[in-house]
Structures are given as structure tokens and as C-alpha cells.
Inverse folding.
């Protein structure tokens, strides 16, 4: 597992910030992860012939994105907008 050992080496060497709250936390990886999800979910939905309604897909996708929020350092959304 090369990626895991490289990550461990970076953390041990102090090259990797511990939390997303750190100003040194690299945002490119989380951004690419979320962008891939936002593009991948509708692409998969279309390829499978749209088995769920757009509203169902919105509800399912939004709950997944909300679950990711704690690890991103993104402030919570105001009540009523979720």
C-alpha cells in the first residue's frame, strides 16, 4: 500500500496538517473528491436510465454531502436551509 505509507510518512514527518481547520490543510483533494461525487452521481443516474426521481436523487445526494461537512471545515448551514 504505497499511498498509505506515503501518508503516514507525511504525518510522521510533520508535513501533513492534522485537521481540516489548519490553514495548511490541502483543499485540492477534498475539492476533487466532492467534485467527482457531484459529477459522478448524475452521470451514473443517467447511465442507469434514471431509476429514481430527481427529487429522490437530490435528497440522497444532499444527505451524503452533509455527512461530509464535519471533515471539510465548512461552517454549518443555517437552520431551515437543509
Amino acid at each position: 500500500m504505497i499511498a498509505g505509507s506515503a501518508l503516514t510518512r507525511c504525518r510522521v514527518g510533520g508535513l501533513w496538517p492534522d485537521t481540516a481547520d489548519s490553514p495548511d490543510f490541502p483543499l485540492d483533494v477534498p475539492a476533487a473528491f466532492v467534485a467527482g461525487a457531484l459529477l459522478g452521481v448524475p452521470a451514473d443516474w443517467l447511465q442507469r436510465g434514471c431509476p429514481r426521481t430527481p427529487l429522490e436523487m437530490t435528497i440522497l445526494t444532499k444527505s451524503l454531502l452533509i455527512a461530509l461537512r464535519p471533515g471539510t471545515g465548512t461552517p454549518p448551514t443555517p437552520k431551515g436551509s437543509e
